[in-house]
Specification:
By secondary structure, the chain is an alpha/beta fold. It has two domains: 17-127 and 249-318, Bordetella uptake gene, domain 1 (D-Maltodextrin-Binding Protein, domain 2); 131-220, Periplasmic binding protein-like II (D-Maltodextrin-Binding Protein, domain 2), CATH 3.40.190.10. It has helices at residues 2-18, 21-27, 46-62, 77-84, 98-107, 141-150, 165-177, 189-198, 210-214, 262-276, 279-287, 297-318, and strands at 35-39, 66-70, 92-97, 117-126, 131-132, 156-159, 182-185, 203-204, 219-220, 251-257, 290-291. Helix 3 (46-62) links the parallel strand 1 and strand 2 (66-70).
Length: 323
């Protein structure tokens, strides 16, 4: 009788453990296998370039591979949806800008919202501005605005997709200057850059243009920031060019499906914060049009909420809609 009772209790305990994968996950070391990082844009663009740096550094820091998976399309929505629906075990992460994680859910119906993804750590702020094909002959924002006013709806403006910061910045300048571009959405910044270099599109605003502007293959008219970029000290800010309060921030974070254990979030946050302070990181990020940024987890949550509020107000102000 005692033996039977003991065996029943042991069987019940074993069954309980098998039905509690969360308990098993919590006890397993992380990471004990490769970690997938979804990039919701194509290879070679600003987000992809940034993600590859961080995947390399995190792989070394944690002793496991952090593997990039490019899942572009729909302005970043497809890859972001995949990340939001992934198992919250720390083995699927997302590196994306506010374009797909904040902007898109405010602009269109998505299967994910702010409750679907949690920000883990900011990994860079984008440095970019309005950049034109040299064949246009345009040298300043004033010349650009005058040209587009005289040719409404004719100048092709390439963006990485609907709802991206490039799209939002185009909409904001249209609103502030009373002009109209011809919007040409792509699947990612690399595709935009390819066509900007040939003049297929004549203007864009994305960090992936950075190398082309330095090489003189594209002309940077302004910087979308409150202060001038150390990389382009002679290029005015949008405010200096005559359009104050017209910036649309571009910031990048590592995100995780909501429910990932706090210990994993804290571990990633701590490692990225440590690496972000290295001189090497600033130098590498500048090469891809980014600046490192650090914050606490509480500051990151507050920043995200403030960005949702600000972006909502911008969408109403500029009457931004996705056709």
């Amino acid at each position: 009788m005692r033996r039977r009772t003991f065996m029943q209790l042991a069987g019940s305990a074993g069954a309980g453990l098998s039905l509690s994968p969360a308990v098993v996950r919590a006890q397993a070391p992380w990471p004990s296998k490769p970690v997938k990082i979804i990039v919701p844009f194509g290879a070679g663009g600003g987000t992809d370039n940034l993600a590859r740096y961080w995947s390399e550094k995190l792989g070394r820091a944690f002793g496991q591979q952090f593997v990039i998976e490019n899942r572009g399309g729909a302005g970043g929505m497809i890859g972001t949806e995949a990340a939001a629906k992934a198992e919250p075990d720390g083995y699927t992460l997302l590196i994306s800008s506010n374009s797909s994680t904040v902007n898109l859910p405010l602009l269109r119906k998505t299967s994910y919202g702010k409750e679907s993804l949690q920000p883990v750590v900011r990994v860079g702020d984008g440095i970019s501005g309005f950049c034109v094909y040299p064949g246009t002959g345009l040298k300043s924002i004033k010349e650009l605005v005058d040209y587009v006013k005289a040719n409404p709806g004719k100048m092709p403006f390439g963006t990485p997709g609907m709802g991206t910061s490039g799209h939002m910045r185009m909409e904001m300048l249209q609103h502030r200057a009373g002009i109209k571009f011809l919007h040409v959405p792509y699947r990612g910044g690399a595709e935009v850059l390819n066509d900007l270099l040939t003049g297929t599109v004549e203007i864009a605003n994305d960090p992936s243009n950075n190398a082309a502007t330095k090489a003189g293959k594209a002309k940077l008219l302004c910087i979308n920031h409150s202060t001038r970029s150390p990389e382009y000290p002679d290029v005015p800010t949008l405010t200096e060019a005559g359009y104050p309060d017209s910036d649309v921030p571009l910031w990048f974070s590592i995100w995780a499906p909501t429910g990932v254990p706090a210990s994993i979030v804290e571990a990633i946050h701590a490692k990225v914060t440590e690496i972000a302070k290295l001189p090497e990181t600033e130098a590498r990020l500048l090469l891809v049009g980014m600046l490192p940024v650090t914050s606490t987890l509480a500051e990151l949550q507050a920043f995200r909420e403030a960005e949702i509020k600000t972006t909502s107000e911008l969408i109403k102000l500029a009457n931004i809609k996705i056709e």
